[in-house]
Amino acid sequence: MLHMLVDGIRGAGRLFSDERRRDSDGGKPSPRGASRGYRAALSVACKLLVVAVALNAFAVRAQTTTIVASGVWNGVAFTPSCNYTTRYTWNITHANGVYSATQNTSNVRGSNCQDTGPGTCGTTGFFASAQDLLTTSQFQALRNAFNASCRNPPNVVKSVTFTSPDSVSGTAIQFDGRDAGWQLTRATSIPTSYALAVAKSGTGSGFVSSSPTGIDCGATCFASFASGTKVILSATPVSGSTFAGWRGACTGTGTCTVTMGAAKKVGAAFRIRPFTAATSKVITGNRATISNTITFNPSDVGKPGAVFVTAWVPANALGTLGISVAADSLLSITSTAVDPSLAGAANKLHLTRGPLAERDTSEFVLVQLTASGWQLVVNGQLIPYASGVLGDQLASQTILNGTDTTNLIGAQFCVGYGTDATDMIAAGNVQLIETIPDQTATSDSSGSCIVNDMIVYLEEPTHGGTASGVGNVRGWAVSLQPIQRMDLYIDGSLAFTVPYGGSRSDVGAAYASYPESTNSGFSMAYNFGLLSAGSHTFLTRALDDAGNVTDATATFNVVRFPNSFIADAADVSLVGASATIVDANTLRLDNVMVQGVSYNLTLRWNTATQGFALVATN
């Protein structure tokens, strides 16, 4: 903004000099004319000074990394090329995971910088976020989503800075391509403290405590904490019960950490230990032998069923367990970038289709022990360790036998049973039996038996493929609980909520045990030309009614022309072009004219879209 101030003052000087020079050339000086010119230019410079001060005053304050978005904000935007200032009030609310907002503008700038008078715009559910505490990139996506819902074409926010918890500033490209600076100032400051409530549920019993102190639930399940406080919740089951996991602001089975930027609710589920599991182990040095014996519940003995053995292991330990997979094999495997026992681990589960070599070796991968040995869990499908009649013949499992644990540190082994995998997961009939300890750790791992009962598959865009023009974002998702929402993240920022519930008879046939699997499709049209040329990542995130979250991702390459959308068919001409068959699935078109520029285009058959897709331009 300071450069605009300097330019304005320089402009005043130039205008003053021009007036004096013009009057001098006319033969008679005109101090009055020069004075008018100087005053006009000085007025411009003064206005620039006011706006520069307004937009930069907060820059000297300590910046924050997250901000509570909801509230009433007073806004100002300045377009230097027009010397035009817009003022508005933005009233935004956050409820049930989505935002709603109304913007009242005192004056609206139309094209050619004319003033079109006041304006009002309101929209509901235009942006989704589990909590009302956003980073700068999330706030940028929030503001752009609002603009896209309220104006066509919209303004595009290019940068965001949090200068205090009550002030946000940045730059934007307005609807007509002009640069603008903007600032939002909260009309009323955010509260200094927020309430944290804990609710216990389930068939079992236990206690929840907090650090810093305040929650001791038990008796005290409600407390207030200062804004910005990191509160760590710990769950301790009583004898005969197990901790089944967090709900609400946390997931997983480890400790729960919440940062207080709004009132929050956390659920803690305890359940009666589903069955008795007697584990025998010998872990010495870097070798482990583990076996287990299940005592089936009396009501289950004699019923047909299956026993399942699953484990979360580091990706670099697959060879240790005898799992041999080609590095370039395309697999849909479940993994998590964090220890599955940690809070929030369920939010980081990925069912990702791609080469095994692309997995980070530090990630944890879901594997299973079958009659033929250890295997990856592919496409979320669990295979029994043994099946038949629940009784003595299925009671014993040999998990590890003198196995090298060098690469297995942190691995977590679980057993469970049911009539099938879906029944076991739905009943919660699975429990942790052992965690391979880190000899240097200062505390025990709580372990986890997250066996994902939700499967998400992103079919288009294809992982490792290309995308261009207007295409689709589509796939399917199934869960034992009703799926509440399907969100799309583009390069790490929440972009859209994708319509869910489309007919998928193929998924229904393959996953018949999942409710509503025949209506499990999600799909939306998307203009990939809005993205820059090169690599991008789409992440689809499914959220069900139980609070479970699962992601599926695809990284692909965007091929595009300079303009994101070519509206006139006359701008594309094949006159004088030639075609060459490159291979059985690829066609090259040379000398294609697109908006006055000659291109050589490569098109390849795309099975997912059932058509030829643009894969390269030259």
Describe the structure concisely for a colleague.
By secondary structure, the protein is mostly beta strands.
Would you give an account of this structure?
With 618 residues, this protein is mainly beta. It has 6 domains: 2-58; 61-186, Lipocalin (Beta Barrel), CATH 2.40.128; 193-272; 276-435, no CATH class; 454-558, Immunoglobulin-like, CATH 2.60.40.650; 569-617. It is 13% helix and 48% strand. It has 5 helices and 42 strands. The strands form 9 sheets. Strands 20, 21, 22, 23, 24, 25, 27 and 28 form an 8-stranded antiparallel beta sheet that branches. Helix 1 (2-25) runs antiparallel to helix 2. The radius of gyration is 31 Å and the shape is globular. It starts with a helix and ends with a strand. Residues 1-62, 342-350 and 441-447 have low confidence and may be disordered.
SSE inventory with pairings:
Elements: H1 2-25, H2 31-56, E1 66-67, E2 71-79, E3 84-95, E4 98-105, E5 119-128, E6 134-135, H3 136-150, E7 156-164, E8 167-173, E9 179-186, E10 193-201, E11 206-211, E12 216-217, E13 222-226, E14 230-237, E15 241-248, E16 256-259, E17 264-272, E18 276-284, E19 287-295, E20 304-314, E21 330-336, E22 349-355, E23 364-370, E24 373-376, E25 386-389, E26 396-404, E27 412-418, H4 421-427, E28 430-435, E29 454-460, E30 466-467, E31 470-479, E32 483-490, E33 493-497, E34 500-502, H5 505-510, E35 521-527, E36 534-544, E37 549-558, E38 572-573, E39 578-583, E40 586-594, E41 597-606, E42 611-617
Parallel strand pairs: 10-17, 30-37
Antiparallel strand pairs: 1-6, 2-3, 2-9, 3-4, 4-5, 7-8, 8-9, 10-13, 11-12, 11-14, 14-16, 15-17, 18-19, 19-26, 20-23, 20-25, 20-27, 21-22, 21-23, 23-24, 27-28, 29-31, 31-35, 32-33, 32-36, 34-35, 36-37, 38-40, 39-40, 40-41, 41-42
Helix pairs in contact: 1-2
